[in-house]
Design brief:
Layout lengths: L3 H9 L9 H29 L8 H25 L6 H9 L2 H5 L11 E3 L8 H4 L1 H13 L6 E4 L1 H10 L3 H12 L5 H13 L5 H11 L6 E7 L14 E5 L4 H11 L3 H9 L9 E7 L3 E8 L10 E8 L3 H4 L6 E6 L6 E5 L5 E5 L5 E5 L2 H4 L6 H18 L3 E8 L4 E8 L11 H7 L4 E4 L3 E4 L2 E8 L3 H5 L6 E4 L15 E4 L7 H8 L4 E3 L4 H4 L5 E5 L4 E4 L3 H8 L9 H13 L20 H17 L1 H7 L5 E3 L9 E3 L7
Parallel strand pairs: 16-17, 17-18, 18-19
Antiparallel strand pairs: 1-2, 2-5, 3-4, 3-5, 6-7, 6-12, 7-8, 8-9, 10-11, 12-13, 14-21, 15-19, 16-20, 20-21, 22-23
Amino acid sequence: MVTFFEKLFHGAGARELKDIEFAQIFEHFQNMLLDDHHRAMELMADLGEKAGGDFVFDRKYLQDSVRELQIVLLRMVKGLNLIGSNRYLKLYSTLDRVLPVESELRCRLKSWEAPYVVRLGDAPMDTPELTGGKANTLVEIIQRLRLPVPNGFVITSTAYCRFLEHNHLEDRLRTLLEAWNSGEHDLDKTSSQIRNCILAGEIPKDLAKAILRHAHKGKHNWSVRSSAYGEDGELSFAGLHETFLNVPHGQILEKYKMVLASLYSPEAINYRRQMGTIGEEVAMSVLCQEMVDSQASGVLQTACPDDLETNCMAIYSSFGLGRTTAEGRDALDQWVVEKEPPYKIKEARIARKELLLRSGTNGGEEEIILSTEQQSKEAISEDVVSSLVQWGVHLERYFKRPLEIEWALDTKGDLKLLQSRRLGFQHAAVEVPEEFFESCSKYPILIRDQGVVAHGGVGSGSVRIVQSNEDMAEFPEGAVLVTRYTAPWLARIVPKASAIISERGSVAGHLATIAREFRVPTLVGVGNATDVITDGIEITLDTSRRIIYQGRVEELIQYQLAQPMVFEETPEFRLLRRILQRVAPLHLIDPHSSNFTPEGCESVHDMVRFIHEKAVQELMDLPSVLKRFRTTNVWTLESDVPMGLKIIDLGGGLD
């Protein structure tokens, strides 16, 4: 593969090295390589300092810093090749790999020379641009941690680009998005036009052949799920892209296009704008896995979002397929378990579960009502709970952050890991002083001590009970969202809401995940909310006491406003963290290691280290210098103390 930087180098014309004098080489080393090395280290240090959270910065700072770093590194690569007679040309492709500036700053896709389809067990690790965020995490879990994940394959971003190119859609999609972002078109119209373009597109024959070759292996049906670039990484996109379960072989291609189209649903487009990424190019890889015939499923959270001090994990479970848990369709069992052996169960709430979602005979899903006897039974045993907690400990230790893990228990009693993403929660809950509650006692209390906190805080506004798309269209800025279910389609109005109250659902649902990302105070599982709270009234939600007041409680609102903004949760800070992953780590420690090569560089820091080390080696290799620069005068210093010191005349210094 000829990279961008190799093209740039050869396009400009490589300098004739035979015409260069040693004095020029040394001057180049002294004035450019050393200065550039110093500047690169300064830029890396400055980016790292910003990650400490003590400075406010914008996206332009990141763009300017990274682009300067790119320019500095390019000069260093060219300088080393000048000194080393073009023996380090592979560094151009290394620079393109470790610092894809447009990939991070604009999410531009690299021109991958990779297959359209790749098996999970064979996919390269740490390539979210190729396999998408969701699949990239599963690839790492399969290949490094060896946990049981359903077999499957990924239709990569290369395939997505091939689809757009074949149907001449790239410019069309960009034009439509720009028109919406500038206010020329409304969101629903833009989304509809883009999705229709994709659904009407033709899958190229070579791509279709590659997909079907993998899909026809075995007799099972498939789950077909989104794995967009960035999904389940710094951003969750929870529930905003399509998922199809129990898909027969013959429907794979149709469902593939529908998942691609969901990249441009109104909710997904609006989410990207709210997160500050609407101007960036996106890509959709699609994850296809063998369908798990689930007797139970659910979510494991390796930290309890509503009580981070407990050192416990929370498990939510229901009968049948996992959509019940993710979309808050029914009540869930909840287990709170200590993280330390012997994983003592601190709390077990077995809910009355009415629904069972299972695979349909001819594909798809079907919903049935559980028998009265089955409704009160626990969905999983204590042994399964213990196994899940051990998974959680293992995964959290490896990824070094709290996680939200989707799992399924098949009819044979085997656990399968379906998905893992970072668990978002507020870093410091707002603790309301006791004296505030005395002044709040004058306000009528509508609901007390009900529900579970999905995200903490205080929110106040006029109530809007939302049950349909028509209700969403009329949802005003700053209203309190009251709903029966935590359905993912409500995500579009989450950024507008001052608070969220739902009758059903759990903190493990997709809507709760989105609410945490937008820092909207949320209380789920408030069983009689729509009966007690009427549309249009003013209320105040205080999650710290799980109290819903009638009226606007100014004392609580002002206290909430006085709390400092968590800058670490802004889009700019998330982008900085992604950039630092490519910039800061140092892997090349030992110059004598077999991995001390251009191919071994995994970060900007590695490249700076490698170039500096090799530049010094090249200049200190006196036999090679004398062979290459035959006209260079070299003198031996004579002194009373034998030092073997050589002096090179750089031009007129010695006679």
